[in-house]
Amino acid sequence: MVDVDDGELLRLVGTGDRRAFELLYARNAPWLLLRLRRRCRDPELARELLQETFLTVWRAAASYRGDGTAVGWLWSIASGRLIDARRRASVRPQLVNSPGEGTLTWSPSAEDEALTHEYDAGLERALRQLPPELWTVLQATVLDGRTVREAATLLGVPEGTVKSRAMRARQRLRAALS
Q: Among 17, 102, 113, 129, which is least packed, fewest CB within 10 Å?
């Protein structure tokens, strides 16, 4: 089963194949944890998000359609868990010790502020109206901070397609907001 690709492993996991799940986890947990750690200062939270991701994979693998890469599907679940955690944290701010002070103050990270920033209702409407192929490119390149090459690999499309979709998405957003 070692030579089976991740997409096929996901299909097998969808049928309840525990061995396929273990192999999928062994292949993908290290890089997922690394990516989560790059976006999250708390290593314990990153490990918790990794476990939540794979719990979701176990439960939802049967819904994997195979249109795109398995790696992209896994990361979309993990990044969704990270965003959810950030939203929860914004509702319940954590107290931290300020350097040189004995008192506790709330100190959100820059990423927390960016993810929880209130967007204009017009922008939200415009984003919802984007076709899925344009939205996924924006998500990969803007929200997830991937390069064009990384996004192309993740989405399973040529780099030029990523660039043109990103340009079309930005044009549509500009038109909708003007």
A: 102
